[in-house]
Design brief:
Distance between the termini: 62 Å
Largest sheet: 4 strands, antiparallel
Number of strands: 6
Helix content: 55-70%
Strand content: 5-15%
Order of helices and strands: HEHHEEHHEHHEHEHH
Number of helices: 10
């Protein structure tokens, strides 16, 4: 027979197999590196998907413009009943008409040709606008990702500070109990520990807020438990010449290419408008037949007798358009000028952004070098002050002053470290290097 312990084991295994979630952690933490974040955003971001739909719509306009040069074809069937009075009684007499027609534009001042070119350009512009938006999302996600890493590292350092304060309080409590220090010194250490704990809570809240910011950029569900992967390397030191990066960006960035194509599109629109001054020549052809029930001929005979074929051309010459063509032309010229100004502004803004990014990199790297040195000295001063406190060679005020200097230097170091990492990646991104951590 199976003993009591064996029965319990069998029952536990059955329950574990039937309900595995009760024996495991039901919270799944999603851990992504930067590339996973970027890939997910490019696939799921609402703004990017909306721009993709705009690009597909532009492609349909492109197909429609190309089809406009082809001849059309239409057919019609028109059965009718006509009420006729005869011998005092009203009768309905049936009749039937059928026809087919086709027409094609032979000449319209180059309107259709220029419209095809314009729609091709607009389809390219839609694709470039999508790329430009992807670039913006990439930089936003990179900054949010690095902010999370900054907050995580800050939490680690602040926890060390709290642990040091707790050790100091324990030691100061021992001295106070022994009568070696005044209560004032003990209270100062207690206040400093409370302040350090508050700083830790603030750092943890900042980390949660940065996580939320990245989740919102990725548009992840609210209940997603999200964490980022810490990279093996963070710092980068290469810095290309400013002029070289500006030239590359002006020649390759999608926002510049989009503005250039918009100028060409506006020029084609002007040519299309000027076609309104020119005549339009179209050719058409048609066939048809009809029959009626109030004749002596048979159905087939009527269709044969009434069958017709026609072909012809139509020349339409604009003579007076009540100034519509002139106004449209002037407005199109203004649109060309506006597009050229937009292109000039795009190039100017991009050059200024790259120059600012270059300055940010130089400043951040200088601040980082200075912060490393400052942290090394303040850390050593704080360590010495702690040792002196243990042997009574330093008072509480001196130790707290050194500690505040150390904490300030630590915060400056962390900020400079991640600022340098962010700015060098932004600067490299302008010269076509993908963002990586």
């Amino acid at each position: 027979m199976v003993n009591k312990h064996m029965r319990r084991l069998i029952l536990y295994l059955i329950l574990f197999k039937a309900f595995p979630l009760y024996a495991q952690d039901s919270t799944t933490v999603t851990r992504w590196d930067l590339q996973q974040c970027l890939d997910y955003a490019k696939q799921n971001n609402i703004t990017l998907n909306s721009l993709r739909l705009n690009a597909r719509s532009a492609e349909q306009d492109q197909l429609l413009s190309r089809s406009a040069v082809l001849p059309n074809l239409s057919a019609s069937l028109s059965p009718t009943l006509t009420h006729v009075k005869s011998t005092g009684n009203g009768d309905f007499v049936p009749s039937f008409n059928t026809s087919a027609s086709s027409s094609v534009t032979l000449y319209n001042g180059g309107y259709l040709k220029n419209d095809i070119k314009q729609k091709d350009l607009l389809a390219k512009v839609a694709g470039l606008d999508l790329l430009a938006s992807e670039n913006d999302i990439t930089l936003q996600i990179t900054q949010a990702y690095l902010n999370i890493l900054l907050a995580k590292e800050n939490i680690v350092y602040v926890r060390d500070v709290v642990a040091t304060s707790e050790a100091q309080l324990k030691q100061e409590q021992y001295f106070y109990d022994a009568g070696s220090v005044a209560r004032k010194d003990l209270v100062q250490i207690q206040a400093q520990l409370a302040n350090d704990k508050y700083t830790l809570v603030t750092a943890q809240n900042t980390h949660r807020q940065n996580i939320l910011t990245l989740k919102q950029l990725l548009q992840l569900p609210t209940d997603t438990v999200f964490e980022v992967v810490e990279p093996d390397t963070l710092m980068a030191t290469s810095l290309s010449p400013l002029r070289e990066v500006q030239q590359y960006a002006l020649a390759n960035r999608p926002e510049v290419k989009s503005s250039e194509l918009s100028v060409q599109s506006a020029q084609l629109e002007l040519q299309k408008v000027r076609a309104g001054y020119l005549p339009t020549l179209t050719a058409g052809a048609g066939i048809g037949s009809s029959f009626g029930a109030n004749t002596y001929y048979s159905y087939l005979k009527q269709l044969d007798n009434n069958f017709y074929q026609q072909i012809g051309v139509t020349l339409s010459v604009p003579i007076f358009s009540r100034r519509a063509n002139k106004v449209n032309e002037e407005k199109s010229k203004l649109e060309v000028g506006q597009a050229q100004l937009t292109l000039q502004n795009t190039r100017t803004v991009l050059s200024q952004e790259i120059e600012q990014a270059y300055i940010n990199v130089e400043n951040a790297q200088s601040q980082y070098d200075a912060a490393v040195e400052q942290l090394r000295y303040t850390q050593e001063s704080y360590r010495i002050a702690n040792e002196q406190l243990k042997i009574g060679a330093a008072n509480t005020v001196e130790v707290l002053q050194q500690k505040n200097l150390y904490v300030q230097a630590l915060q400056s170091y962390i900020q400079a470290k991640y600022s340098s990492a962010l700015y060098i990646r932004i600067y490299d991104f302008y010269r076509g290097i993908p963002v990586k951590l």
